């Protein structure tokens, strides 16, 4: 039976000079890193660029990672620092978005240690998505997983654009309410 | 629904005009509760993106990393291989202790083997002509099928000739027209060495026990794996890797860039090595290794299976449209793993169409297509590389609905409910 290599064993090989093995590390952590970066509401190209830079930076400083500690948490710190750096570089003309990003910058301050709260929110999101009516859930999945706009969603589901818009709005409001409820209980 | 919720959701859907944006700015600035609702909805939207939109940045990140390492001449990471060296010290000491005791018998065995080994090495690192077109010359002697490639002699092709030779391990190399090269056959070590002075080499190299190198005036390519093309012009050397990985070093440089599947790299005397994704449609490989075949015969649906809706052949064109208002999908009966596909595609207005592969584990959405106009779709799927272009513009790859990602799987065209898609001139080239 094939056995899975532990992250530290893969990292050991990378540290030993097997650069190609690093691709396995990227594959294992890229979605987690994207989750961190996505919170800042950058456009897709910027978010992707920060994800890539996170892994390059992590490789170049790999000798400072302590084996046996939490690699996922270590690399997320690099991602958060890059997000904060990007937020500092760009002032947003839309005041409402700037106000949100200011809050993200505070959230990403290292001393706040946001991992635990982010993980709880992720669990809550998954739980609440599971409770959405199927038709709402389908619209949400198509919209976010495939970046389909309202008109495309209407074409894909055979519904009118207005109906799709309303469903997507309601789904997001239901999710927000549900997540707040779950977070208040934990 | 509260006004702040409505404005935020409109903003998220890209439907908020300047007046709405101003109203939203004011509400968020003046009312802490509105700001809190706004932030919560933005955060939810970001979390849904993070959870559902699949990030696949591994291949590209590795290329950036290799570029970074090459530019940095490995200095910053030179500490990393140090541990490897330490780990190797102990086995090395044990080896020398054994050698000290067994030196006599070992020397006798070595002397006996050396003669045989030199012969084996020369066979392994030398090549035999398997195909010629026109006049391919070694110095002043014409080369024919079955001839061994002579060592250190100038091999030349003319404008209308080419030469294909094969190594003992099955690796093949094709010297294109108007090209000049030399083969250096090794007596010690099994390294294959070629020097390309001008022109083009297309190589399909089997996994190597020892490294194979190809030198040009600008760079040295060290072959780590299989299918690639190297083109030496007076100004620059360009390498395109269809499958595997090749280390490319500028002439005289100690370090280089690993060029991986789907990437091309250019080296010249003046500039650093530059790397970019390979142009789709260039994965030619050596003669016969990647033949383009028509996937649609223009008459009927031979080789295809309708798995959804309705598909017909009309005037030499595949037409997908379900008059009952459902979606339509047409799948190839054959599975493909590494391939290039080219076709022409035309869409109804507002139609959502996809090219799906690996049994719908992944797909390319045909985005930004002008309705009722023929577009050129090109797709390259090879290992970790998935690229597609529509009229030369890149299309994003998305994760499909297959339960388990399959390396090989059917190809499919899909169009949404009640919409029409036209497809013609479908060609596929398998890369193995």
Description:
The complex is a heterodimer of chains A (186) and B (432). Chain A is mainly α and 186 residues long. Chain A has two domains: 7-88, RNA polymerase sigma factor, region 2, helix turn helix motif (Rna Polymerase Sigma Factor, Chain: A, Orthogonal Bundle); 114-185, Arc Repressor Mutant, subunit A, CATH 1.10.10.10. Chain A contains nine helices and no strands. Chain A has helices at residues 7-15, 22-38, 44-60, 71-89, 95-107, 115-131, 134-145, 150-157, 161-185. The longest helix of chain A is centred in the last third of the chain and has 25 residues, at 161-185. Chain A is globular, with a radius of gyration of 19 Å. With 432 residues, chain B is an alpha+beta fold. Helices cover 23% and strands 38% of the residues of chain B. In chain B, strand 13 (245-250) and strand 14 form a beta hairpin. The termini of chain B are far apart. Residues 73-94 and 283-289 of chain B have low confidence and may be disordered. Chains A and B meet through helix 2, helix 3, helix 5, helix 6 and helix 7 of A and helix 1, helix 2, helix 3, helix 4 and helix 5 of B.
**Secondary-structure arrangement, i.e. CATH architecture of the largest domain in chain A:** Orthogonal Bundle
The CATH topology label of the largest domain in chain A is: Rna Polymerase Sigma Factor, Chain: A
Helical element count of chain B? Answer: 6
Structural class by SSE content of chain B? alpha+beta
Helix content range of chain B: 10-25%
Instruction: Give the low-pLDDT segments of chain B.
Output: 73-94, 283-289
For the termini of chain B, the CA-CA separation is 58 Å
Q: Taking Cα atoms only, what radius of gyration of chain B do you get, to the nearest Å?
A: 29 Å
The interface involving the most residues is between: A-B, 66 and 69 residues
Q: What percentage of amino acids of chain A are in beta strands?
A: under 5%
* Global mean pLDDT of chain B: 78
CATH class of the largest domain in chain A: Mainly Alpha
Low-confidence stretches of chain A: none
Over all CA atoms, what is the radius of gyration of chain A?
19 Å
Strand runs of chain B, count: 30
Question: Helicity level of chain A, as a percent range?
Answer: over 70%
Write the element-wise H/E pattern of chain A from the N-terminal end onward. HHHHHHHHH
